[in-house]
Amino acid sequence: MILPIRLATNTNGVYDVDMKRRIGILMAVALLAIYGVLAHQRGMWPFSSPVGLKTFTNGVGGYSFQYPSAWNAVENSYSARDTLFGTGASATSGLGGIEIRDFTGNTEQFMAGVEAQYSDIQNVTIAGLTGIRAHVSSVGTEGISYLLQKDGQIINIYINSDNAGDIASLDALAHSFTFTK
Q1: Residue 152's beta-bridge partner residues?
Q2: What are phi and psi of 8, to 5 degrees?
Q3: β pairing state of 83-86 and 141-150
Q4: DSSP string of 21-33?
Q5: Strand pairing category for 63-68 and 117-126
Q6: Helix, strand, or coil here: 7?
Q7: pTM for this predicted structure
Q8: For residue 36, what is the enclosing H or E element?
Q9: What are 84-107's pLDDT values in tens digits?
Q10: Which residue stretches of 57-139 are H helix?
Q11: Are the C-beta atoms of residues 72 and 90 closer than 8 Å to each other?
């Protein structure tokens, strides 16, 4: 015989409607907390709150994106269509960046020609383009890269970090990426 569990009873064993409400509220709060933790771990949390974001537009590259206000985003001094970003980023260095490379092949051919190992490859859609998101390992560097293909070019949105916060910021940045021309 299965006995019902009566969590919502008072000390006299009488069903307590207020206790039932309190338990329901506690469960809802717990579920929201769990959702928040999971969303943050999966890099989705930055999408829900635009507070503390700045927008950078690269006129030469023809794109814009949002990034955390604690970061800098600057045009790369070596190629005006590229951008570097991250805490303390300058025109010559950054934690990550956006590179545009002329390339007539597909993303798989591009990856095969780079001295790095790509793993955990996932299909993504960014700015209306189908591309990939992958973990990248190179000599002494770990990170995440988004590769998109458009008009004979590969767009590489990347970060050289395995820090979960940096990766969550990159994920939000990549999903805010849009073309301006």
Answers
A1: none
A2: -100, 50
A3: unpaired
A4: HHHHHHHHHHHHH
A5: unpaired
A6: coil
A7: 0.72
A8: helix 17-41
A9: 999 999 999 999 999 999 999 899
A10: 107-112
A11: yes
Q: 51-179 in CATH: which number?
A: 3.40.1000.10
Contact 160, 116 (CB under 8 A): no
Predicted pLDDT at 40: 47
Tell me: pLDDT of 43 over 50. no
Looking at per-residue pLDDT, the higher value among 38 and 179 belongs to: 179
List the one residue out of 149, 164, 57, 150 whose CA is nearest residue 108. Answer: 149
Q: Strands, E, within the chain: which ranges?
A: 53-58, 63-68, 72-75, 83-86, 96-102, 117-126, 129-138, 141-150, 153-159, 178-179
Tokens of 28: 């809802």
- Per residue in 65-83, is it b (16+ CB within 10 Å) or e — as a string? bbbbeebbbbbbeeeebbb
Per-residue tokens: 181: 């021309």
> pLDDT-derived band of residue 16, with 50, 70 and 90 as boundaries?
low
Residue 150's CB: how many other CB atoms inside 10 A? 14
Q: What's the mean per-residue pLDDT of the chain?
A: 84
In eight-state DSSP terms, residue 9 is B
Cα–Cα separations (whole angstroms), residue 135 to 58, 127, 153: 25, 20, 21
Tokens of 106: 């597909």
